Amino acid sequence: MSQSGRDAGEASTSTAHLHVENANRSVWLLKVPNFVAKKWRAECERASKADTEECVELGKVRIAHSSAQAPGISLDLAASGLHNLPQAFDLREQTDNFTPTLVFADLQGRLSAEGRVKRKFDLVMKSSGDLDVLDPAYRQINRDRSAKAAAKTRTMQVLSEAPDTQMRLGAVQRVSFGNKESTRKRFEKGQFERRARMEKDDLENLLFRLFERQSRWNFIQLQKETDQPAVWLKEVLLEVAMLNKRGPNANLWELKKEYRAAGGNHDVHMADA
Description:
Elements: H1 3-12, E1 18-19, E2 26-31, H2 34-49, E3 60-64, E4 72-76, E5 88-94, E6 101-107, E7 110-125, E8 127-128, E9 131-132, H3 136-150, H4 165-174, H5 180-188, H6 200-213, H7 219-226, H8 230-240, E10 241-243, E11 253-255
Helix pairs in contact: 3-6, 6-8
């Protein structure tokens, strides 16, 4: 290869160094509710705009050792100074289907490997005994989100002219493979309409309200109430509810223990993923 060819090849290829000094460092991965993530993100952006080198304290992890049982791990947000947030959470460790993961960071063009994920946790509301003690700030978050989910966002529009009949018939002909009359009836009944996926937060809110009305549901009932695609509904449902596989409540879904209402209160735990 000529010198000019090598120069052209070098110019067309951009290279960057990967710093691996911390590649073997142990890291914990924490999945937090959406309302906590928003507060943390806003606080980090505020500190970034302030152009200060001080670390932003988002909370303190506390480990309580006990000889009788495994150490209890919790997160305390009281020292962070963030308002309108619950102050105490538990870290619930994930042990199933753990996949080794590397953490990378890109800080001002410096790409580095920051460690290996050794443990994964879910952030859940701190519980006491058999009943969850709901923080007042968390109660208010639940009320606000339930009110938002109940608000009607769809609008109706009155058409001044009837839809084009030829276009409608043409659509029927394109999907017709057998009896045209039966195809037309199925089309008019809406069997070819696809269900629109709700936002995850809105679907979770709707599910919590359904479980407030009735403690157990089968999947067909939930799909009818939510009008959601089966795959999407099951994906969200698995995060907040559990399926009874045996006993008198077999094949019925109910809320996971950590999301059930405390006492007789209708406020429930909600986890954003």
